Amino acid sequence: MAGIEHNVSGHTEQSDAPPWHISVLQHLNPVGRDLFENYSKVPSDNVIEHITIFRDKAFKVYPYPCLGRWGFLDFSICQSASYAEVLDRVKTGQKCLDVGCCFGQDIRKLVHDGAPSENMYGCDLRKDFMEIGYDLFLDKRTLKTTFVAADIFEANSDLRKFDGQFNIVHAASFFHLFDWDCQVLAAKNVAALLKPGPGSLIVGRQAGNVISGPGKGNIFVHDCGSFIKLWKQVGEETKTKWNVEAQFTEDVLGFAPPGTRWLAFTVRKL
């Protein structure tokens, strides 16, 4: 979760709450309730209060929309058409990185579903979020996942020591934080983390729009065609080939501009 500072800076206190801040969690989906009750062992009656405490703590660190609107509770990785493949591959020993992982919530979903936690890695710009994740999911002593605080754009970040080591990268609500050129650079840096040769996979979802183009706050918003075009450029500049599948799912509700949709994608190295 990097690069969105120019969009949400200035909103760090709930007294000056931005339009994407929802104070009360009205509903927790079955995936989330199962995870908190059966993975984290939070008593059923305490789940909402428990989540709220640590969401509010994280929102004071930085007021990302995915925190303000409780979007981190979507556990979007399990909504991916490639989720079964990702889970099976991690179970067999392959390594998966969640880039822009926030609390590591999607990592916990994979682990709860049987993925060995030592095969999972998480990266976020803000170490605070990953530390809060341990308190949120109550697994500091048991989770064997490696977390790295790093900026995807820094050539000498700690993340670069993992270049060429991952079979799978999960990137949810990540690329859409940047303008076109920065998305190309971010995609190239993510691609460098993947193992050489065919079969490596990048999966995720992000906010898109039925009309692609520059968005508010120096970002580029994709439709399916422009997202495919971006990866074509990445391939040309890195002399690699990618099969890209992208599709819109449901509308993004709330403060987002008209025409905003979730754009789900699978990018497979050929």
Automatic annotation (TrEMBL):
**In the UniProt record, does the keyword Repressor occur?**
no
> Domain named Methyltransferase: which ranges?
97-197
Q: Name one GO molecular function term.
A: transferase activity
Report the InterPro entries cross-referenced here: Meroterpenoid_MTases, Methyltransf_25, SAM-dependent_MTases_sf
Q: Name one Pfam family in it.
A: Methyltransf_25
Which family does this protein fall into?
Belongs to the class I-like SAM-binding methyltransferase superfamily.
* Protein name in the entry: Methyltransferase domain-containing protein
